[in-house]
Write a structure and sequence with these properties.
400 residues; alpha/beta; 3-stranded antiparallel sheet; binds pyridoxal-5'-phosphate
């Protein structure tokens, strides 16, 4: 009999973590690899945030805090939701976890019974379906076509809702496409959701601040206040504040849901790091101007990537509104042969070819639930991106 639980057979390891690991290993072995797989900013955590953490250590903030976040942390989140999203939450409606990932995991563990359905628009962030499966639920994947900018069509949403639907998970701007819902796009979705009272909304707003060309970010409970009582508004400091390693995420929602999520956290990890909380308080309350400066750079990189990728034979790349990803189609490479005589039959074959022939580490669209595409993270230096584009172009031109 195996020591491994049956439930583990339902899920797979994170493919994005696997790609980053593979790129690191190839680099360590002396290969010339450009990592375009990691979903984290190449910018460093701003100094004021680091100093706040150092001060917290000096103040001996090295004890357990409340499981779901210390009062100052919750106050900073309450103020953030009011300031940025016009949403009113009380401290008891806030939970803080070890990264946005834990917050979503807690929500699934706290709410799903066997057979409960969770609607997940595809392409999706890789962890959603696996978290649903681990918690005993059923992911219901709804494809979102490129010709609708990878956004959910309201009719497809309506058709996917059943009496067993417990949640929908929305993510705008999206990992992996960078697509974001305008107010009108979001209203069309919330109009459908408002009619189905059994459906709760988990909105993953992790990339809220990373939008370009003056795009206005919106979140469901703000666009449709009728959904406020059944929405979990989730966010975190990882991406906008360049704090992926600090592991702080948070959410606001109805008190009963938040209490249930805290119960899960209380029997797993307890509080997120006390020092990281001090840093996150400074991130949320301190100066925000570096975000706009970073966005200038991200926007230039996005434009560079879209322009360059569209010159590669067999690829076509849409222009996303936000995040730091592009999601080009590699449909035009399928059926072609590599110089070694291998036929490209899938996006996985294509990304393997890119890695082996040119040392470009990207992630196959299959991992995000929509093929044939691949994801490139442009959160790396502009020089590396220019080099990567030249390599990708060479690889595409070498296909016959
Ligand atoms: C869409 C999305 N949600 C949540 C997360 C998790 O963020 P964290 O690092 O705070 O756990 C990520 C990280 O890649 C993400 O891309």
């Amino acid at each position: 009999m195996s020591i491994i639980a049956e439930r583990l057979s339902r899920i797979k390891p994170s493919p994005t973590i696997a790609v980053s690991q593979k790129a690191r290993e190839l680099k360590a072995a002396g290969h010339d690899v450009i990592g375009l797989g990691a979903g984290e900013p190449d910018f460093d955590t701003p100094d004021n945030i680091k100093e706040a953490a150092i001060a917290a250590i000096r103040r001996r903030e090295n004890k357990y805090t409340a499981v779901d976040g210390k009062p100052e942390m919750k106050a900073a989140v309450v103020a953030k939701f009011k300031r940025d999203n016009g949403l009113d939450y009380k401290p008891e409606q806030i939970t803080v976890g070890t990264g946005g990932k834990q917050v979503i995991y807690n929500a699934m563990m706290a709410t799903l019974d066997e057979g409960d359905e969770v609607i997940i628009p595809a392409p999706f962030w890789v962890s959603y379906p696996d978290m649903v499966l681990l918690a005993g639920g059923e992911p219901v994947i709804v494809p979102c076509a490129q010709n609708n900018n990878f956004k959910l069509n309201p009719d497809d949403l309506e058709a996917a809702i059943t009496p067993k639907t417990k949640w929908i998970i929305l993510n705008s701007p999206s990992n992996p496409t960078g697509s974001a819902y305008s107010r009108d796009d979001m209203k069309a979705i919330t109009d459908v959701l408002a009619k189905h009272e059994q459906v709760w909304v988990l909105t993953d707003d992790m990339y809220e601040h990373l939008v370009y060309d003056g795009f206005e970010f919106v979140t469901p409970a703000q666009v449709e206040p009728k959904l406020y009582d059944r929405t979990l508004t989730m966010n975190g400091v990882s991406k906008a504040y360049c704090m992926t390693g600090w592991r702080i995420g948070y959410a606001g929602g109805p008190v009963d849901l938040i209490k249930a999520m805290t119960k899960v956290q209380g029997q797993s990890t307890s509080n997120p790091s006390s020092v990281s909380q001090a840093a996150a308080v400074e991130a949320l309350n301190g100066p925000q101007d570096f975000i706009a400066a970073h966005n200038e750079v991200f926007k230039e990189r996005r434009d560079l990537m879209v322009e360059q990728l569209n010159t590669c034979p067999g690829l076509s790349c849409h222009k996303p509104e936000g995040a730091f990803y592009v999601y080009p189609s590699c449909a035009g490479t399928l059926g072609k042969k590599t110089p070694d005589g291998k036929v490209i039959n899938s996006d996985e074959d294509f990304v393997t070819y890119l890695l082996e022939s040119e040392g470009c580490a990207t992630v196959q669209g299959e991992a995000f639930g929509l093929s044939p595409y691949f994801r490139i993270s442009y959160a790396t230096s502009t020089e590396a991106l220019q080099d990567a584009c030249a390599r990708i172009k060479r690889a595409c031109e070498a296909l016959q």
